[in-house]
Every structure is written in C-alpha cells, then in structure tokens.
Amino acid sequence: MTTTKTESLSTVPAAPTGTGSRGTRVLGAVALLFLVIAVAYGLLISPPDAQLGNTIRIIYMHVPTVMAAYLAFLITAVSSGMYLWKRTEFWDLLGSSAAEIGVLFFAVTIVDGALWGKVTWGVFWRWEPRLTTSAVLLIMYIGYLAVRAIPADPKTRATRCAIIGLVAVVNIPIVHKAVDWWRGLHQGKTVLGTIDPEMGGTQLFAMYSALVAGILVCVWLLIHRFRAGFLAERASDLGLDQALEERRLESSPAQGADS
Amino acid sequence: MSAIVHLHSAVALIGRFPALAGVDLDVDPGEILLLRGPNGAGKTTLLGVCAGLIGLSSGEAVVLGEDLTSHRRAVRRRVGLLGHDSFLYQDLSVVENLDFWSRAAAATVADGRAALDRLGVASRLFELPVHALSAGQRRRVSFAAMICRRPELWLLDEPHAGLDSAGRDLVDGLMQEAAASGATVMFASHELDRAENVAHRAVTISGGVILPASQPEPASQPEPASQPEP
Amino acid sequence: MTQTRGVFGDALLIARKDLLLERRAKIGLGQVIPFAILVLLLFAFALDPDRGVLKQATPGLFWVTVLFSSVLTLQRSFGLEAEDGILEALRLSGLSPAGIYLGKVTALTIELLLLEAVLVLGVAVLYDTEFLGIPLLLAIAVTATLGISAAGAVYGALAARLRSRETLLPLLLLPLLAPVLIAATRGCEVSLQREAMSGWPWAALLGIFALVYLTLGSFLFRPLLEDA
C-alpha cells in the first residue's frame, strides 16, 4: 500500500512551480467522484441501520477518517525509519507531510466520534477505547508537529522528527492494548469504528465508497503537502548560492578568494 | 597524502549560513598552525570540522587519514578540542571531572592526574567543584582534560583566553612540546604577537575562506608551508 | 587499558557519573522529592480527604505524581549534558551512544525508584494506604520506572537542546507514557485488592513497554547525539 504511494510520489522532484499535476488532478477528480457517491449513498440512498438508526451515517465518515489517519501515521513511521537509513530529503518531507495530514484526520475522527457519542450516549465523551486511544495519539503527533515547527537546520529538524516518528509509532499498539484492557473491564463491545458484518448492500456500498474516498483524499492531500514542502525547501535553498557569494565577499578587502 | 589535515573547497553550513565557504587547507605533521581572522570568520567552525563534529555540505576533508565525508566519527577519538565551552560538569569536582573524561577517552585515571599536574593545577583545587573555580583555573582543567586523551591533532580555540601570563607561557610550551613529539596543532588566536612566535605558519581566515598567502607571514617559518590551492 | 570497555562499561561509567552528580548537587533530593510530596498534599486539598476519594484514587495519584516528577528529573538529567559543551565533549569522547543512553537510563531508574520509595512513605502516612501484594507492587514499580526512564531518556535528550524544552518535553513525553500510567495504576489497584483480576498482565505490559523503548532508544541515540 505504502510502496505504491511512495512510488507515485517519487516523480515529484520534477514538479517545478505548482503543487498540481495531471496525475493529482485525475486523482482529485476520482476522489471527488467517490466522495459524491459516498455522500449520496451514505446520506440519502442507504436505509437507517436496524440498531444504530441514522447515527450509522456518522460511522460512514468516522471509519474512513480514522483509517486515513492511521495510514498517514504508518507512512510517517516508514518514512522516519527510511530517513534515518537513507538521509534523504524525500523521506523527511514525506514523513512530516503525512504527520500533518494524520493529525488533521485524527482531529476530524475525534470530532465525529464525539458527535456520534452525543447522539448515541447523550454525552460527547465516554472513555470509549478507540476514542481515548485517538486522543492520546493525536496529542502525541501534535508534539511531532511542534518540534517540526521549531526553526532549525534542515538535517537537524529531519532527524528530530524521524526519531519522534519512530518513538511515537511503536507506542500505538501499546496504547491500544492498555486502553482496551482498561476499558474492557467496564463496558462491552463497542460499535464505533467497526464495520458490522451484517450490514446490508447499500450500507456496505456507502461504507466502502466512503473508505475509498477517505483514502484518496488523504493521498491527494499528502501529495500536495509534500510538493508544497518540497517547494518551500527549494525556496530556502535559493538563498544559499548567494549566501556563499556574500560570505566569500566578507574577505574582499584582500581581493575575492575564488570566484 | 602525508598531510594531517587536508581540506579542499570545504563548505560547512551552520543552519543555512555558510560558515565555511570553500576552505582549502593542508597541515603537515608536527606543524603548529595559527588561524587568525576577525570574529565570525569561521575559525571555530573550521576547528569543529577538523574534530569531526561538524559535517561538510560539499568539498573534501581528510583528517588523520580519515575521510570526514564518510567517516566523521572515526577521527574524534584521536583529536583533542579545546573550545569556548569548558567541557566540564560544573557540579563535579576537578578530579571527578578528570577521572570521568580520562576514562571516557579510554585513558587511565593516572593520565588525568598527570595532566592536571602538567597544567599546574594546584592540588588544593582538586576537590573543589568546577563552578567554584576562576575562569583561568577552569581553562587549565579543561586543557588537562584534553591532553589526557593524548590527541594526535590538537585543535585549540583561543587557548590563551582567560589565562594569566604564566598560564599563557605554559600553553605555548605545551603546544611546542606536542609538536616536537609528533602531534600537530591548529589554534585560533587573537593574541597575534604571542601566537605568531609559537606558530610555524599562520593563515588568515575571513568570510569563511582562507586568504591567499600574500598576507604578511609570521616571523618564524622553519619549514616550507604548503599553500592552499584553489 | 584501551577500548575494551564496551557498551555496558560505557553505561556504567555514565551511570556512576550521573549518580555522583546527584550526590554532589542534590537536585533530586532537595527539589524533586519535596515537589513530589507537595503534589501529594495538593491532591489532598483538591479531593477532600474525608470523602474517601483520596484513598480510592491513591494508585492513580501516586503514578501521576511520579510522571510529573520524572519530567523534572529528566530535564535536570539532560539539561546538564546540554550545558558547557558537554554534548560535544561526549561525542568526541568515543563513548558509544548506546552506552551513554543505557547509562542515563540506569541512573534515571535508580533516582526515580528512590523517589518512589519516598512517595510510598508519603502515601502511607498522608493517604493511609495499606500495602498488599508486595511482589506485584515491586514488579510494577520496577518495570514502570524502567519504561519511564527508557522512553524519557530519548525525549529528554531530544528536548534538551531546544529553547522551548520546558514546555516541549511534557507535551512529547506524557502522551507517550499514557499506557504506563494506565498499566501501573491498574496493576497497583489489583494489588491493593480494589480490582478483581490478575495484576500480572499489567506488569507484563509494562515490561514490554520498557523493553521496546530500551531497544529503540539504544538504536536512536546515535542519530540523536549526532544530528538532533
């Protein structure tokens, strides 16, 4: 999954000025198409659920966002490891772009999860294992972005972020296990964030088209974010040759050193 | 490739600032090289590069036979760096610091004591925490922690700073002794009168490059210095 | 005597140096432990000792106090490595990064276990706690503390050179330690017989956490020292 995505991104350094290309436009159009289908089936065509009623329509959104968020964090983790191995800008930019997208999707996940809770339980927040895990992970990755935002030498910043990306990702299963055991004592199985195997045809179709839409939107955002980051780096590099020239000129009273 | 330090077009960035903007420099074994130049010229960065602490973004660097572009860490055990910072734990006593740093450098505790002795650190100071020392005393302790490593290449950033005249004489003597015993010394200094007497050769660094040798040469120049080539 | 010391020898050297520093400066004893006791008092003010909440929540309050104290301990432990060019000196020294990491973790674990010992006395006196299931409690204390130190040392070293380290370290570290808080608290509750289940799975989870981060930290400390 991730490898195909990284391959499609490896052509990016050729993109000179904008973040769009024919590939991303096609991808965007397909994502939009699936979004429209997901909205149509999720909100209009599919019937309310036997147990959940209309709240299942929130789940059509919740599951794709959480999947996209985990996908993004997986990309961050792989990129972090690859950065420490290969030390190339590509992996740094991919990892940090994915972390940003992941935080975005996780925030959406928590908001729609809380809304679902309000409708279903009458309260925004219950210490439901998945929601709780998401909250912890969200803050963990906000820490990643906070470190990312600290101005530093690009290599230093990349190393810091790669380390956090790896440290954070191995925590995901542990948090998951701990929270599961913790809440497992107090409440039964939850339906939030799961795909019910007894879903009917149009429901299932709504769910899967939403899932495809969520992943496509995630990838589309990721590509654009990556390219924006790449261009930002090139913009900072533009000054480098000039800075070198200026630096050498500092010694100029005794004629320029080499030019 | 007999040069102890060989730099060619070495560019080193601090953040995005080119602290070294293309340095060409060769230093021969047993040489004492003075780096002079204004503040911000790149002297400290150059010493950091030679110590394997700062990586190059382009150019060549071979120090003590190790290619710094690929094996930056290998050179570190073999150099001694005296920087602006003391490299000492403030809350530990003088001997505790020396014991730790000598053992960290795979030297013995006895090496550390000998180095303190060599630097003329009075034994009444041994049990004092480093933060209680005067600047000059601390400098001597830092120097002792450096020489107990028995470095093959001495990299000294303003070794005279903060020392009294006896201390400065001591430092000069140590540098000459080191060079005589086969080590190589590079040092940055603003005390040009004193420094030029000790150094075999001086280069001027400014704006992150080494200036051509049309600049005034130091008085004593026992061996033909290899000049940087563009 | 040349480079025969190895990673564990390096770790021992660093750990002894850290404990010596604590003995000389007494920051842990003189500042962190009083702070931890203060937090126990503050919880009592906030939660009203007469309603029994305090007693019920003792394991959780204990471990929250340990987490906050560990942030202070970490800041001290890595703050002094970031001063006076010590980090450069360590890089020049030839000590192995994994050895430095394991040494820091060892010293931190010992310091935090001592802090916990004092805190145990604190909750025994202030919250009137009775200690049951001592073997499980000990196992949880050791594994949880090792986990806190192992994960904390990575982020402590990472944050130490940043100007915003005081705010950044807790933001990075505390979410990471959420499973430790959950597992240690639940494990202690089981041990104090407030929960009816086996507590050993919690200790096992803490052990896994510690092992995972010890391994990861040993690998990550080289890039951390070199480039971060």
TrEMBL record, chain A:
Residues 24-186 form the Cytochrome c assembly protein domain. GO terms for molecular function: heme binding; heme transmembrane transporter activity. Residues 1-11 have a biased composition (Polar residues). Residues 1-20 are annotated as: Disordered. It is a multi-pass membrane protein. The chain crosses the membrane at residues 26-46, 58-78, 90-111, 131-150, 162-182, 202-223. GO terms for biological process: cytochrome complex assembly. Belongs to the CcmC/CycZ/HelC family. GO terms for cellular component: plasma membrane. Pfam families: Cytochrom_C_asm (PF01578). The keyword Protein biosynthesis does not apply. The keyword Nucleotide-binding does not apply. Keywords: Cytochrome c-type biogenesis, Membrane, Transmembrane, Transmembrane helix. InterPro entries: Cyt_c_assembly (IPR002541), Cyt_c_biogenesis_CcmC (IPR003557), Cyt_c_biogenesis_CcsA/CcmC (IPR045062). It is found in: Membrane. This is Unannotated protein.
UniProtKB/TrEMBL annotation, chain B:
It comes from freshwater metagenome. Residues 5-227 form the ABC transporter domain. InterPro entries: AAA+_ATPase, ABC_transporter-like_ATP-bd, ABC_transporter-like_CS, ABC_Transporter_VariousFunc, ABC_transptr_haem_export_CcmA, P-loop_NTPase. This is Unannotated protein. GO terms for biological process: cytochrome complex assembly. Residues 209-230 are annotated as: Disordered. It holds the Pfam family ABC_tran. The keyword Transport applies. One of its GO terms (molecular function) is transmembrane transporter activity. Keywords: ATP-binding, Cytochrome c-type biogenesis, Nucleotide-binding, Transport. PANTHER family: ABC TRANSPORTER ATP-BINDING PROTEIN ALBC-RELATED. Residues 219-230 have a biased composition (Pro residues).
Automatic annotation (TrEMBL), chain C:
It is a multi-pass membrane protein. One of its GO terms (cellular component) is plasma membrane. GO terms for biological process: cytochrome c biosynthetic process; cytochrome complex assembly. GO terms for molecular function: heme transmembrane transporter activity. The chain crosses the membrane at residues 27-47, 59-80, 101-127, 133-156, 168-187, 199-221. It is found in: Cell inner membrane. Keywords: Cell inner membrane, Cell membrane, Cytochrome c-type biogenesis, Membrane, Transmembrane, Transmembrane helix, Transport. Its main location: membrane. Required for the export of heme to the periplasm for the biogenesis of c-type cytochromes. Belongs to the CcmB/CycW/HelB family. This is Heme exporter protein B. It comes from freshwater metagenome.
